[in-house]
Amino acid sequence: EVQLVESGGGLVQPGGSLSLSCGGSGLTFDGYTMGWFRQAPGKEREGVAVRTGDIITYYADSVKGRFTISQENAENTMYLQMNSLKPEDTGMYFCAADPPPCRVGEPATWDYWGQGTQVTVAS
After folding, report:
1. CA–CA gap between residue 50 and residue 102 (Å, rounded)
2. Cα torsion 38, 59, 66, 17: sign
3. What's the N-to-C CA distance of the chain in angstroms?
4. Residue 35 host element (H or E)
């Protein structure tokens, strides 16, 4: 059984930083495309950052230069370092895995999802 578990969310002031982690079991990350998605209340789930192996294939325009996706294959763990956070970054953040090739714009097509971790950016 595949399990993805996110951690690291919380409440942070605008301009602050958070680091999210995603641990996995039942699959090896380096054989999948791994991604971070987020969903704000009343909005559709959107891709934030995606990587396949050692290649970072996608950052949402809204997070470029502020967020960094990374992965430690030996630990089957993926990270999302979020800096200069803005209120519009608020949402539930999910990690996901899918055999490549993947469609970032179609999250419903991804095979595996974590339960999510809440990120709230507010003063």
Report:
1. 10
2. positive
3. 40
4. strand 33-39
Contact between 34 and 2 under an 8 Å Cβ cutoff? The reply is no
Q: Is the peptide bond before 101 cis (omega within 30 degrees of 0)?
A: yes
Please check whether residue 111 is in contact with residue 97, taking contact to mean a CB–CB distance below 8 angstroms: yes
For 11-32, what is each residue's pLDDT tens digit? 999 999 999 999 999 998 888 9
DSSP letter at 110 equals: -
Residue-by-residue DSSP string for 45-102: -EEEEEEETTEEEEE-TTTTTTEEEEEEGGGTEEEEEE-S--GGG-EEEEEEEEPSS-
- SS3 call for 20: strand
